[in-house]
Design a protein that fits this description.
This is MPN domain-containing protein. This protein folds into 2 domains: 92 residues; 136 residues, Cytidine Deaminase, domain 2, CATH 3.40.140.10. Helices cover 39% and strands 14% of the residues. Helix 2 crosses helix 3, helix 6 packs antiparallel against helix 7 and helix 8 packs across helix 9.
Amino acid sequence: MEKKNYTVKDWPDEERPRERLLKYGVEYLTDTELLGIILFNGYQGKTSVDIAKELLIENGKSLRKLDSLSYTEMSSVKGIGLAKFAQIKAALEIGKRLLRETNSPKKKIHNALDLVNYYGPCMRDLKKEKFKVIMLDVKNKIIKDIDISVGSLTESIVHPREALKEIIKESAASVIFLHNHPSGESNPSKNDMDITERLAGACELVGVKVLDHIILGEDNYFSFAQEGLLKKAGTDLVSALKGVGNT
């Protein structure tokens, strides 16, 4: 007798992920079942839930790890093609945007944790360093944030004049610098210390307060302000202002 290739449709109703979601609610489904629903269908001999289970096992049962995978990495699991890769990435991005919307600092910034909760979901798992300048008004409300640089796996290249162009343009009263460490370790390097001092000195010369520099790790963060490490730079940093306002 020829062996039949079963699909999710052959499962009893009470075991099918979509039917369980509709009957009991989304919170009662496992990560594997939710991912199986997103994948929608499998291939000969494997259901979407089977593919989801293999994908999670291969990546330490971590949705965050999935979020950081490239297409080449994810497609190493049989059954994952461009369409399914796009479906997974879109679903994970929606989750991050929902979390960011939930944690949006609509009122003034009170502490480093406000920004960690807001920017962390989108930055902490990046494979390259991204350096942001967050500009605030006199009430410590965010005016705008911009990416000053996206660096290599080990460091970002940040020029004070590039940051100051935007800060002056937006008439910011104060700023907070923020970047991630792809290594997952949030402690500052010597390069981080030097950049912070240079930026703080340059901002001081144009009358803009630097409230903090936050480094995002995997599940932790480092705040220069909380650690008392924000220092005034020397007057030799006047040279950092060269080019400000030029295009």
